[in-house]
Hints:
Layout: H1 3-15, H2 19-25, H3 31-38, H4 46-56, H5 60-63, H6 71-76, H7 80-85, E1 89-90, E2 93-94, H8 97-113
Antiparallel strand pairs: 1-2
Domain HTH cro/C1-type: 8-63
Organism: Limosilactobacillus reuteri
Keywords: DNA-binding
Amino acid sequence: MSEFSNRLTDLREEKGWSKTYVAKSIGLKSMQTYANWEYGRTEPDFEMISKIANVFNVSTDYLLGRKELSKADQVHNATVDEALGTIMSFEGQPVTEHDKKVMKDLLESYLRNKE
Length: 115
């Protein structure tokens, strides 16, 4: 497989998304077209590469294997669980697992209900 197809698969799996979800998100009618890109059978045109980059919030250079994700990009692309897992303390006080659960619930509620 190509670097492009590996990165597509890795990004999708990191997000916990299905191939069907990604395909619909970039305007494809068929999940199989997207799957062929992940399997390295075919490659999309530049317009579609740009759409994919936007969906995954990465650069086209990253998708095409020209550069690695920066630490800032890695943090930006982290899931809620991953981000909360990195919080160890607040104002010098340890953050407990219960605190992290409450923060996760609050954040998810906010994101679901925002306009």
